[in-house]
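Minutes, project check-in
Item: structure for the 144-residue chain
Input as provided by the requester:
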Amino acid sequence: MTVSRAIADPKRLRRLAAFVRPEAGARLLDVASGMMALAFARRVREAVALGWDVRRPPANVLLEPADPHHLPFPDDTFDIAACGPSFHHLPSPRSALGEMERVLRPGGRVVLDEIVASEQTVRAAATRIDWSVCATAPTRTTCV
C-alpha cells in the first residue's frame, strides 16, 4: 500500500500525538494500518495495531490482525482507540466506531485522523458518523 507523504508525515503525526497527550501508561488500539500506533508508540506503554503498512514496528507495538467491526478484545481494554485516515474506507465506519467505544475503558478517547471527505454523495451518506455515539456517554468516552 502506498501512503501519501502528507498523510504519513512524521511531524504531522507527532503533533497529533502531542495534541492528544496520552498518559505514559496508556494502552492504544489502532484499528487500521498501524500509522496511529507508530505515531503514539513513544507516548504510550503499549499499542496494538490490527494491520501494519508502515516500517518495522517498535518493541511496544503488537500486531493483532482482526476485523475492526468485530474486535476480539474484551470491553474496557484500551485507553485510546484510534484510526488514521483510512476510516472512510471501512465498510461500516459506524460499526467500527461502536466497537472502538466498546473496548475503551471509562474515560477513554476515540482519536480519528480523518482528513479525506468523500466527494460521492452516496458514499458520503454511508460513511457519515453520528457523533452522538460519543455524546451519549460523556463520562465514558471523549472524541478527539
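Outcome recorded: The two ends are 27 Å apart (CA to CA).
No further action items on this chain.
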